[in-house]
């Protein structure tokens, strides 16, 4: 039986507060977009490394193909999430820059 895949935030290792929550998520008491994006990129690198390791182990006959496919899909989803965050930030910056004062 294939194990269930956890929520995206848990597989990225992120500890994001629920929407509307006022509890601080970092030790300093503040959480900025830059910190969240940096954490997402760091988690993405770890997820991609895991997927690459799994693929190499499958090629060597040392790992299960289904686990490698799960790791590959998690890596794909994490990449898509980071790209969506970046695109949203670029779009927002473009809107701010085009605002006339």
How would you describe this protein?
It is found in: Bacterial flagellum basal body. Belongs to the FliE family. One of its GO terms (molecular function) is cytoskeletal motor activity. Keywords: Bacterial flagellum, Cell projection, Cilium, Flagellum. It is a single chain. The chain is mostly helical and 101 residues long. It has a domain at 34-101. 65% of the residues lie in helices and 0% in strands. The chain has helices at 8-12, 33-59, 65-98. The longest helix has 34 residues, at 65-98. The model is unreliable at 16-27 (pLDDT under 50).
Question: What is the structure about, briefly put?
Answer:
By secondary structure, this protein is mostly helical.
Question: How do the helices and strands line up, and which of them pair or pack?
Answer:
Blueprint (H helix, E strand, L loop, with lengths): L7 H5 L20 H27 L5 H34 L3
Helix pairs in contact: 2-3
Termini separation (Å)?
60 Å
Helix content: 55-70%
Please tally the β strands and state the result: 0
CA radius of gyration: 17 Å
Sequence of secondary-structure elements:
HHH
Question: What is the general shape?
Answer: elongated
In this structure, how is the largest beta sheet organized?
Answer: none
Number of helices: 3
- Low-confidence segments, given as residue ranges, are 16-27
Features:
cilium, elongated, 101 residues, cytoskeletal motor activity, 65% helix, cell projection, mainly alpha
